[in-house]
Design goal:
The complex is a heterodimer of chains A (about 700) and B (about 400).
Chain A: H1 9-35, H2 39-66, H3 72-100, H4 109-141, H5 147-172, H6 175-192, H7 199-217, E1 229-236, E2 239-246, E3 249-254, E4 257-261, H8 265-276, E5 284-288, H9 294-299, E6 305-309, H10 313-321, E7 331-334, H11 338-344, E8 349-354, H12 362-365, H13 370-378, E9 380-391, H14 399-413, E10 418-422, E11 426-432, H15 440-447, H16 454-461, H17 464-472, H18 487-499, H19 505-521, H20 524-551, H21 555-567, H22 569-578, H23 583-608, H24 614-638, H25 643-693
Helix pairs in contact in A: 1-2, 1-3, 1-4, 1-5, 1-6, 2-4, 2-25, 3-4, 3-6, 3-7, 4-5, 5-21, 5-22, 6-7, 14-18, 18-25, 20-21, 20-23, 20-24, 20-25, 21-24, 22-24, 23-24, 23-25
Chain B: H1 6-26, E1 58-59, E2 63-65, E3 71-73, E4 81-82, E5 93-96, E6 99-102, E7 110-115, E8 129-134, H2 148-151, H3 165-174, E9 179-182, H4 191-203, E10 207-212, H5 218-225, E11 230-234, H6 240-247, H7 251-264, E12 267-274, H8 282-295, E13 302-306, H9 321-334, E14 339-342, E15 352-353, E16 360-365, E17 368-372, E18 374-375, E19 378-379, H10 391-394
Parallel strand pairs in B: 8-9, 9-10, 10-11, 11-12, 12-13, 13-14
Antiparallel strand pairs in B: 1-6, 2-3, 3-4, 5-6, 7-8, 15-16, 16-17, 18-19
Helix pairs in contact in B: 3-4, 5-7, 8-9
The chains are: A alpha/beta (about 700), B alpha/beta (about 400).
């Protein structure tokens, strides 16, 4: 088919796609920095993005008939508004937090939900609106302009945006600089859009440029305030890092949370001496992350070799630069994922000390699973010790905490003959194959090691009674924490809600009612698209979590995964658009293929587990997204390919994706594990297969 | 093609401004909309009482009956007015059939043996141990509570240790403790349990320690003072705004508690957690010390505690040690005689110096006391009386 002249509309759509995906990724990062986001927050962002985008798409159908007639000028004006909204959105995410919430507090589920909704609303709504509006502008010029072309142009832009962001921009630019760069193609495409320049759109363009430049120039000043002086700020590949100095104390904030701070000898002493005092002569040590003051305590054992593994090289660099870690003899800083490091090193250590934050994200959880414990065990020298910690227990062990510590203790006991839980600043799990002694001051005295905290406070804080109480709390019936079935993740979710005295039941209820109401109003082709949207993003989530579980949170490669899940859509849509056979049967074939792909993926998960090569994940992503992309034009054409059908089909796809992201991230994976989540998605497509079979094609 | 008219543009702008304004008003859901600090005070829980009493129920000692089966809890300044079936702000009191009951009587959820210095009490029988108990509930909503898993839940939701007053005293004696501390959560909320235990404990020669936020009404406090030997009461801030914003309480009743303890002759120590960004400035400390000196005098020990990110207040860095040291110096310069640093191991701010001769009287190495120069409650060097409950006094 010869490309009709649309006056540059398609170019605008591609550029909008590039910018919108990059804005979405920048926003994810902003929310993570403001809310110390776990996967729940990420899921909420995707959810609202999709829902508001869907509303915007539907609104485009009704709104334009009485207010906005198709016009390149208005399209240009709206696109400039998008640019301005993107800057305002990031500023709002950063600044509104302290206005609406109490400064310094973490925020619960519902306030997070509300905040994400309010701050995302303008941009997401408008971006959803612009896509079908662009189609109507193209059709205003050329009545038979195919809707699929806009869909494909949008996909091409999305793929390009995700790739540019993940492969290039994220490495070199700050958030506002990213916004500036990704909007340049959009602004250029508006200049080339025929009949787009008017006084109003030109003014909007000037304002948009001004907003972008202002953001990029005043990046530092637009960061939220902290107590003290910000002496360093950087965007690492893994998050936002700020170094704050206040009255001589230095704190490193990672994504808004104080992760490392000076002047806390108690914590450093406990996490070093409780495990190391067990070993006769610890010569080779492996530290997985570290806390302030730790190296000075480690040095008291005069080890020959200390390998310090830190995933984020910048975090390690800053800790050394700002004296939170003192360089000691034999220290080697290894900037690598600890699981990846352990899986290829042959070194055996006398002690492996894991000093990571709470296992409340999939990124961190993978260091608290059976898979990692086994890896650690295989790298311990005879008589060696392995330790890790979670948030300390003050004076009471709640039900959730009991579940958590039991799950961890039971997991560790599968690999170590002795596992001792030690109370303190953090609840430490000391694991080894030889008996563990709890009178740490005596052990330290025997080694001639002096301490400031343990010597003075141990007897009162870590009494025999408290140690016994803690170890007695381990319930042997609680299941272990596995890579593909992360029990700790569901406990983290439940714990987060408990901490804020909340229950998600109202949200779940409201969502279910809305979903049922929506499902009763859609046609069969839209149902197929809804399940396609759900399965596409659901499979993407499954793949991301599998990737995180198997290989770690490698930001680059997760960007690649996002890209492959977008990349398949475009050729799929192209193939679907050119398909001339029986479309109903093709839709059914698409459903069946998706179903089979998901079952196959589940089988590979069962068989290969840790051995699953990364290429399988990429291939899976491409295949799934190809099938999903293939189904969209088919369903659209089956529905009649009118402007109304296009808007409804876009929104069915988006709503399906919104449902999928919540379902998979918040319910299926945490509560049933990755395997069952995959099979559930296959089940959805199996049902869709029959629905597709019942479609009566519109002539 | 129809373009937006000027009128349509104005209407659209007005509509969006209205929606923004409405949206702002609705933000009171998250925080305050009036520009004042947020108030996180708890509310009563309607129809949340259990259907019937359980073995840990006890008719409350302080309440009044209102009409139509309602009751007014007069234990703390929250003054919960409960209709039948309602539960108090502190979650441990319910109105069943027109009578107010505590659900925490004998229903301890935590029991430990702690050094008395851990409370912290530095002028109260040093190096002795306190049998420490807690039941669920609190009349505050502190965002940095380290015991939130027992303070912010109902008595029905925690593990039960089933320790009635007599059993508590026996356990304390058996474990060699010289005192019983009512602590961890907010003991005012298990008042009946506390005061009955305290009476038995006192009759057996044990001391009673109250570790509290001080949010209690005068009448129950005066009754409690008769059984108390020592107390550690939190002075969270000298600002009512901070009390409202971080703790969900008010300042005035807490100040009244200090005055009452002082008048009743109960030895008490004050703790002040220095939360970065919420009163970690010299003016606040000076104002706090000014009030203490004016109403309580210079003798009651004051502990500046170091804040660590906890519970919901977990996005602030720990208090810099230099700030605590500066506040200690400031408080001493203002005239408070005994000012200590908490959560700062190894610092001289843990030791007791005679306010007159400035000699080291009690050297604290954590919970160990290698140096002790107080005899019969006085400095061994210059014989100045040192406020507190010392071994010779209490034996």
């Amino acid at each position: 088919m010869k490309r009709p002249d649309d006056g540059g509309v398609r170019r605008v759509v591609v550029a909008t796609g590039i910018a919108s995906v990059a804005v979405q990724l920048v926003c994810v990062r902003e929310y993570l920095a403001q809310f110390h986001g776990n996967e729940i927050v990420i899921a909420l962002i995707f959810f609202f993005w999709l829902v508001f985008g869907g509303i915007g798409t539907v609104a485009a159908k009704g709104f334009r008939t009485w207010v906005l007639q198709p016009s390149p000028t208005i399209l240009a004006f709206l696109s400039c508004l998008l640019v301005i909204f993107s800057v305002c959105q990031v500023v709002a995410v950063r600044w509104l937090r302290d206005l609406v919430f109490i400064h310094g507090t973490s925020v619960g589920f519902y306030p997070t939900l509300g905040y994400v909704a309010v701050t995302l609303f303008p941009y997401a709504l408008l971006v959803g609106f612009v896509l079908p509006y662009s189609l109507s502008v193209a059709r205003y010029r050329l009545a038979r302009y195919p809707g699929n072309w806009i869909y494909m142009a949008d996909n091409a832009g999305d793929v390009a945006g995700a790739a540019i962001f993940s492969f290039a921009l994220v490495h070199w630019l700050t958030p506002f600089q990213v916004l500036l760069v990704v909007h340049l193609p959009l602004l250029a495409s508006l200049l080339l859009l025929e009949s787009a320049i008017s006084r109003r759109s030109a003014a909007a363009g000037v304002l948009a440029v001004a907003a972008l430049v202002t953001g990029a120039v005043f990046e530092d000043r637009l960061l939220p305030t902290r107590e003290g002086r910000r002496i360093h700020y950087a965007e690492s590949r893994y998050g936002r890092i700020e170094v704050i100095e206040s009255a001589g104390a230095v704190s490193i904030f990672s994504d808004g949370v104080p992760s490392h701070f000076s002047q806390d000898p108690a914590l450093a002493e406990e996490i070093v001496h409780i495990p190391l005092s067990q070993v006769d002569r610890p010569r080779r040590l492996l530290l997985v992350s570290a806390v302030g003051g730790m190296m000075a305590e480690v040095a008291k054992y005069h080890p020959d070799r200390v390998d310090y593994v830190e995933l984020d090289p910048l975090a390690a660099q800053l800790q050394l630069r700002f004296d939170l870690l003192t360089p000691i003899r034999g220290l080697t800083v290894i900037a690598q994922d600890a699981r990846a490091y352990l899986s290829h090193t042959s070194t055996r250590y006398d002690a492996i000390l894991v000093n990571l934050p709470e296992p409340e994200t999939y990124q961190i959880n993978r260091f608290y699973t059976a898979g990692f414990f086994e890896l650690a065990k295989n790298h311990l020298a005879p008589g060696g010790v392995f330790s890790f910690g979670i948030e300390g227990v003050a004076n009471y062990i709640s039900e959730i905490r009991q579940q958590k510590l039991s799950s961890l203790a039971n997991t560790a006991r599968s690999y170590f003959s002795h596992v001792m839980l030690m109370p303190g600043q953090r609840l430490l799990f000391v694991c080894r194959d030889r008996p563990i002694q709890t009178d740490i001051p005596v052990l330290l005295e025997q080694k001639g090691i002096d301490t400031r905290h343990i010597r003075r406070y141990f007897a009162g804080d870590l009494t025999g009674h408290r140690i016994r109480q803690l170890n007695d709390a381990v319930d042997p019936r609680v299941g272990g924490n596995l890579d593909l079935s992360p029990r700790l993740m569901r406990l983290a979710f439940v714990g987060w809600l408990a901490r804020h005295g909340e229950s998600p039941r109202w949200f779940a209820l409201a969502l279910s009612v809305a979903a049922v109401a929506y499902l009763t109003r859609i046609t069969r082709p839209q149902w197929v698209l809804l399940t396609t949207g759900c399965v596409n993003i659901g499979a993407e989530m499954v793949t991301i979590f599998t990737f995180q579980t198997l290989y770690g949170y490698v930001y680059l490669q997760i960007g690649v995964l996002v890209t492959v899940f977008l990349a398949g859509l475009l050729p799929g849509a192209w193939a679907g658009g050119r398909f001339v056979g029986n479309r109903r049967r093709a839709l059914m074939t698409g459903d069946l293929l998706l179903c089979l792909l998901l079952v196959l993926f589940a089988l590979i998960l069962v068989v290969a587990r840790q051995g699953m090569p990364g290429m399988v994940l990429y291939g899976f992503g491409l295949a799934v997204s190809f099938c999903c992309g293939f189904q969209f034009p088919l369903a659209l054409m089956v529905s009649g390919d009118s402007a109304t059908a296009a808007a409804q089909s876009f929104s069915a796809d988006l709503v399906g994706a919104a449902i999928g992201v919540l379902l998979v991230s918040l319910v299926l994976i945490p509560f049933f594990g990755i395997l069952w989540a995959t099979l559930f998605l296959a089940g959805i497509k199996f049902i869709s297969f029959f629905v597709a079979g019942a479609i009566h094609e519109t002539p | 093609m129809r373009r937006l008219s000027r009128r349509q543009f104005i209407l659209a702008t007005a509509a969006s401004l209205c929606s923004t304004a409405t949206g702002h008003a609705r933000w009171s859901f998250f925080g305050s909309a009036d520009g004042l600090p947020s108030d996180i005070q708890g509310t009563i829980f309607q129809n949340d009482a259990p259907a019937s009493l359980w073995k840990w129920s006890k008719a409350a000692y302080h309440f009044s009956r209102l009409g139509q089966g309602a009751v007014l809890c007069t234990l703390c300044p929250n003054h919960c007015r409960l209709s039948p079936g309602d539960r108090s702000v502190c979650r441990s009191r319910v109105n069943l059939d027109g009578t107010l009951y505590s659900l925490a009587y004998g229903n301890a959820c935590s029991a430990n043996v702690d050094p008395v210095e851990k409370k912290p009490l530095f002028h109260f029988l040093p190096t002795t141990r306190a049998f420490s108990i807690a039941a669920a509930g609190c009349n505050f909503r502190c965002l940095n509570c380290q015991n939130w898993e027992i303070s912010q839940v109902r008595p029905e939701d925690v593990h039960h240790l089933d320790l009635f007053p007599e059993a508590v005293v026996k356990a304390a004696v058996r474990s060699g403790c010289q005192s019983i501390a009512y602590t961890y959560s907010e003991p005012t909320t298990f008042y009946e349990y506390m005061i009955d235990t305290a009476r038995i404990a006192r009759s057996r020669g044990l001391h009673n320690i109250w570790v509290s936020n001080g949010y209690i009404n005068q009448k129950p406090l005066i009754a409690l003072c008769r059984e108390l030997d020592g107390a550690n009461v939190n002075l969270k801030s000298i600002s009512d705004d901070v009390y409202r914003q971080l703790n969900g309480g008010r300042l005035k009743p807490v100040l009244d508690t200090f005055v009452t303890l002082h008048r009743q002759g109960v030895h008490f120590e004050m703790t002040h957690l220095v939360v970065p960004g919420y009163g970690d400035n010299d003016e606040m400390v000076q104002r706090m010390c000014g009030w203490i000196l004016e109403h309580l005098g210079p003798n009651y020990p004051l502990h500046f505690l170091r804040f660590f990110p906890r519970y919901q207040l977990d996005r602030l860095a720990p208090t810099p040690v230099a700030t605590l040291i500066r506040f200690r110096e400031l408080a001493m310069a203002e005239g408070i005689r005994y000012v200590y640093l908490g959560n700062v191991p190894g610092h001289a701010g843990n030791h007791t110096f005679c306010h007159r001769c400035k000699r080291l009287l009690v050297e604290r190495q954590g919970y160990h006391i290698p140096t002790f120069h107080i005899t019969k409650g006085s400095c061994q060097f210059c014989h100045t009386p040192i406020p507190g409950v010392w071994p010779a006094d209490g034996a």
